[in-house]
Amino acid sequence: MAQPSQSDPRFHLESQVRECYGRCAYTHKIHERMAERHANHQWLAKWFNIVLSALIAGGAVSAVFKAETGLLNYAEYATAALAILSLIYNAYQKDLDPGALAQRHRETASDIWNVRESYLSLITDVLNDEVPIEQIREKRGELQAKLHEIYRAAPFTDGKAYAAAQKGLKDNEELMFRDKEIDDMLPTSLRRSWRAAWVKSSN
Predict the structure, then answer these.
(1) How far apart are CA 86 and CA 93, in angstroms?
(2) For site-directed labelling of 197, which of 16, 41, 83, 100 has its Cα 20 to 30 A away?
(3) d(CA 58, CA 63)
(4) pLDDT tens digits for 34-50?
(5) Which residues make Cβ contacts (< 8 Å) with residue 45, sequence separation at least 6?
(6) Cα 40 from chain centre
(7) Buried b (16+ CB within 10 A) or exposed e, 47-86
């Protein structure tokens, strides 16, 4: 694979496709982090519910064997309070449904991964002079339309997931990628730095 000149239209097309690839890799990671966090939330919620149910059951058993003591009366009040707390918590969890949210983020990440890999293939096509540039542009447009549909249906992400995915970026440039940053995400044979070194060594 030759190193295209910076005045070559293929170079500009490759630069845009590389940027799209970087954005996909970035967004894919955000949704993965969101899915992990919602899954952890669901796990903690289940255990909290189990503990809460056990305490309520314990209070109910105590009421069955009721004795005329002030301590038992406090236990009854505590059981009633826990039952109300359980009702409120379960209603909140039903509306939130972290399990369903985790699944939606996983599905979105999977869809974005597929587009990301298609962009990777497109980079290979850009570097192949035998593939017509119009064919590459047509494929680029198809991928952009597909990605737009995925984003429209995707669940919202938040600042925590964004910050986690942003950790690899420098100087808070957010969605701006340096060549080296995208190179680090690409296979060695598709890296510009590797191709430049190969051309230099072959001359």
Answers:
(1) 10
(2) 16
(3) 9
(4) 998 888 888 887 787 77
(5) 93, 98
(6) 14
(7) eeeeebeebbeebeebeeeeeeeeeeeebeeebeebbeeb
Residue type for position 123: I
- Residue at token pair 């198809």: 142
Which residues are CB-contacts of 21 (< 8 A; sequence separation ≥ 6)?
A: 116, 119, 120, 123, 182, 185, 186
Name residues whose C-beta falls within 8 Å of residue 203's C-beta, 6 or more positions apart in sequence: none
Q: What DSSP string runs through 111-165?
A: HHHHHHHHHHHHHHHHT-TTS-HHHHHHHHHHHHHHHHHHHHHPPP--HHHHHHH
- Run of H or E residues at 51: helix 9-64
User: What's the Cα-to-Cα distance from 167 to each of 56, 158, 160, 162, 178, rounded to whole Å?
Assistant: 44, 15, 11, 9, 14
Nearest to 108 by CA among 150, 165, 162, 160: 150
φ, ψ (nearest 5 deg) of residue 23: -65, -40
Q: Which two tokens stand for residue 152?
A: 């429209």
- pTM greater than 0.70: no
Q: Which of 1, 31, 29 is nearest to 14 (CA)?
A: 1
User: How many other CB atoms are there within 10 angstroms of residue 16's CB atom?
Assistant: 12
Collapsed DSSP state (helix, strand, coil) of residue 203: coil
43-80 pLDDT, tens digit per residue, is 887 787 777 777 777 666 665 566 554 455 666 666 66
Which amino acid makes up residue 154? A
